[in-house]
Description:
The chain has helices at 17-41, 44-60, 137-142, 147-163, 184-199, 218-258, 265-280, and strands at residues 15-16, 64-67, 71-77, 80-85, 89-92, 98-103, 107-110, 114-117, 123-134, 204-216. Helices cover 47% and strands 21% of the residues. It starts with 14 loop residues before the first strand and ends in a 16-residue tail after the last helix.
Amino acid sequence: MQSRNTTKETTFQPLGGALMLAVVLFLFAASVTAIVLAAAHREPAFGIAAGAGLLLFVLLLPGFFVVEPNLGRALVLFGSYRGTVRTAGFWWTNPFTNKKKISLRAYNLNGKTLKVNDLLGNPIEIAAVVVWQVKDSAQALFDVEHFEHFVEVQSESALRFVASHHPYDDGQAGDVTTTLRGSSDQVARELQHELQERIQIAGIEVLEARLSHLAYAQEIAHAMLQRQQASAIIAARTKIVDGAVGMVEMALARLSERGVITLDDERKATLVGNLLVVLCGNTNPTPVVNTGSLYN
């Protein structure tokens, strides 16, 4: 593969605009004076000097430019990159120089919602917000085509890559501890690192990258909701059963310690069954009064 010729930003120090403005105004005033003298004395030399002065005045005017705070101007003279002016102010340079404006402020990219497959192949909807800024103006302008669109495309690619390496939720993959929903901070760091690697050739620095939207795709959302509800019901039932068993053990131990009643194995089994039904039932139990004996 052929190696790329990477462009690196260099600092260019132009001339002060105020000083050159004074020179240009003096040149204009001298040209006007020469025109007046040429008309008064009918001297061709004054006319030639006036014409040359006005021509030079017109040629010098395009050399002025203004740099606003957190903006830069990349200077290109006859196809050769001369450097970038980052210092805010009023400046002047060679009038034949092409002064490309580039913003050095932070950009905010609100990515569109993508439909991708997670680690287990489940279709999900995911989106991210990326904060970035230009770090090297020369690379951004000359090493990639339309660096803003480049960042947008690479952001989608990095988001798809990260989403495909993690399951959506906990408990879906036993050997994976990082999930898209439960490990948002770690996923954000991975997304930022992956995106930085992809857009480094454009001289872009990623300041922050975070998920802004995460949901199951519409075609499986209902099934996954039922799965989550079932998991929640099982977890709740497990806790109820553990508590009920503990209460039954405590009841049998208290009855035995205080000698309230002596229970054989069959009566204990009946008591345990009745207590578990009362404690684990979904509805309030209906009491049944037994007027006879357990064995009749």
